[in-house]
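Worked example 2:
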Amino acid sequence: MEKIIYTLAVAAIGGYIGIKIKMPAGALIGAMIAVAVFNIQTGKGDVPSQFRVIAQVAVGAMIGLNFTMDTVTGLKNLVVPALVLVIGLTAFSLFLGFILSKVTGLDLVTALFSSAPGGLTDMTLISDAYGADTPKVALLHLVRLLTVISVLPLVIGWFTRLLVK
């Protein structure tokens, strides 16, 4: 029980720091980095596997709260864009996952979840249920997230200026 309390305390401190320094997804990434460092340094990190189910329920609830009646009525305008996104992202993610697996030696399940377009939290939690190497999935999504957050606005600004001229 002591290990769980220490782990959660370290996670809370890391999450707080992540929020305070305005890190993208600060609570999640700050907690993850703090617990990783704590566990690497001490080997005393522990969270019972039942917490994963609680985390999945909480994430599911938070995602569900994003839906309103306006969201549902607005879906009719999003059918075609949604189909294009789903088909394109799924095909590209599967292709990229297979390439990652072949080129890097990652097992296929880990490579596929690492290249999935979902969020860091969602893909990490779901990948665990499929036997993927969850720390690798989380780390690769973290790299993707930080890259997208830092590079994509610059690229979008560049494309916008290029196309507006």
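The CA atoms of residues 69 and 158 lie 36 Å apart. Residues 73-164 form one domain.
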